[in-house]
Amino acid sequence: MRGLAFLLLVSVASARIFERCEWARTLKRYGMDGYQGISLADWVCLSQWESNYNTQATNRNSDGSTDYGIFQINSRYWCDDGTTAINACHIRCTELLTDNVGTAITCAKRVVRDPNGIGAWVAWRNHCQGRDLSSYVAGCGV
Question: What pLDDT is stored for residue 4 in this prediction?
């Protein structure tokens, strides 16, 4: 039992939860501001509602797929969790859970190149689409 508790503590200790402005600056450095016509504020809003800026967030869906990482990228289409075949990002889903967000950002760029664009994310459609998102980047110097 102590071993399980230790593993849980190690797992929690390695989780990276970005602050809003830190995440906005990171996204800007990776070229996300204006990528496929999507504003930086849209990306920050999406990330806040999908994972609360947590790189190790996961969510099991009713269809058996899982959403992974800061963008909550779905295993059914975008990554390999050992049960899916499409893997359009050509990565293991666990790669979306690291503190090195480059892989997650590259995969998110792949997702928005599909016809659904940023609308592929339900949280963006429900919480960000058609709204004034200026507060998501306000005071961040981006």
Answer: 37
Q: How far apart are CA 109 and CA 93, in angstroms?
A: 16
Cβ pair 41, 133 in contact under 8 A: yes
- Distance, CA of 48 to CA of 93 (rounded, Å): 20
Helix (H) or strand (E) holding 15: none
Task: Tell me the per-residue pLDDT of 46-79, one tens digit each, with 9 for 90 and over.
Answer: 999 999 999 999 999 999 999 999 999 999 999 9
Contact in structure between 112 and 120 (CB atoms under 8 Å) = yes
Cα separation values, 48 from 24, 82, 97, Å: 11, 27, 16
Q: DSSP state, 57? A: -
Q: How far apart are CA 62 and CA 59, in angstroms?
A: 10
Element (H, E) at 23: helix 20-29
| pLDDT higher than 50, residue 138 | yes
What residues are annotated to the active site?
Answer: 50, 67
